Each structure stands twice: as C-alpha cells, then as structure tokens.
Task: structure prediction
Amino acid sequence: MADGKLAIDGLHKAFPGPLPVLDGVAFDVAPGEFVSLIGPSGCGKSTLFNVIAGLETPDAGRVLVDGEDATGRVDHVAYMPQRDLLFPWRTVLDNTTLGLEVAGVPKREARERARRLFEPFGLSGFESARPHELSGGMRQRAALLRTVVLDRPVLLLDEPFGALDSLTRTDMQTWLEEVRARFGWTVLLITHDIREAAFLSDRVVVLAPRPTRVRCEVTVDLPRPRQVELITSTRFAEIEAELLAALRGSS
Result:
C-alpha cells in the first residue's frame, strides 16, 4: 500500500434546514499513522467520513492526500463501513475480490491478489466457505481484507468491531494492532470506545458536539507493539481519563 498523508482542511457541511454538521474540521494523518476519531453521538463523525471518502461533497474546505486535492474523489481511500456487508451467495474469496472487480481488475488477477492476504488475515482454508460459516471476528477480517486489497493510500474504518462481543472485540483489536504494524497502513478510525481508541491509536482527535469541530488532539505515547495487558497500566488509565475529560468538554 502506498504511503499517504491525509489532510482535512477546514471542512464545512450543512444539510437542508439548514442543519449545520461540520464547522471547519481540520486535522492531519501522517503516513503510517493510526488516528482515531471520537466524539458525542450525532456530532457528525459519519458525515465527516462520507466527505473524506468522496461520498458527499463539502460546502467548503478540502480533502488532501499527499498534497493533492482529493475532494469528491473515491479512489484515494478504502472505506470499511460498520457492517461487514458480505454477500451470502458468494464465497469468502469472491467476497474479498468484489471491490477489485468493481474497479475493473480481471477476476483471475483479483483472486490472486486477495488470496495472498488470506494467511496474514487468519483466513487460510476458508477461501471456498460462505459467510455464514465464519465467526463474527472472521467475517470482520474478511471485510477488512476486501478493503485493504484495493491498495489505497488511506484506510477509513467506521466502528469495524462495534457489533462484536467484548471478548471477540478485544481479540480483534489485538489482531489489528499486529497486522497494521506488519503492513504499515495509514488508518483513520471512528469509534465510540475510548479504550479502543487508546489501545490502537498514535493520536486521538476529539470532536465537539454538532456542528462539530476539533475540540482537541491527544497523543497516545504508549510503546508498540501493544498487548492487551497494557490496558491495566497506570499510563493507559491516565490517557483514558484525558480522553473522557476531553469528550465531556473539561480538558
């Protein structure tokens, strides 16, 4: 995956009414950095993601990737939504190649590219399985594989583990930490889980209530690689407390 710096430059967005949603949102994501977005429910996180992904057009402001204006384009990021959206009638392998096929990649080449990722994604042996034969965590890994195989500069992850039970979610967070380090992805994650943001991120961007703006940014100065035992450390608890205070507007 190519390195890609993402710059969000003063995004404004309002819906008819008028209903202001984004109020000059601005921040950067460096190449290879993992940044999480947290904020109150309904503050505009999903709208912000849709603008970054090129699915909605801002009223003002720009989205830049590697210094180039990518506003309104859909070819600069790979977007994984909250639900895995795997088609039940397709095999796991054919589900993971869907984005490549839509982009015009020949089916044989798409399969070869996706198949190479099955081992690091813990899906070896399930190429011919159907989605209903997978566990929840495996379905999310398949959905993420389908996303990263597009080889876009930036990954957008919208609460990818939100529907999983607590134990599976913890396992998936640890797995994502390992595989992200292996591939060096540039990631922007939406999450409502402060602990998840602290565990996975290099930096957390805290958004204010709607119309949203960046309230503050919190650097997560925890060593990598990170293991689940880290969450019991004093420093981890301090970062969680700082993020909670920021969400409540008391930072």
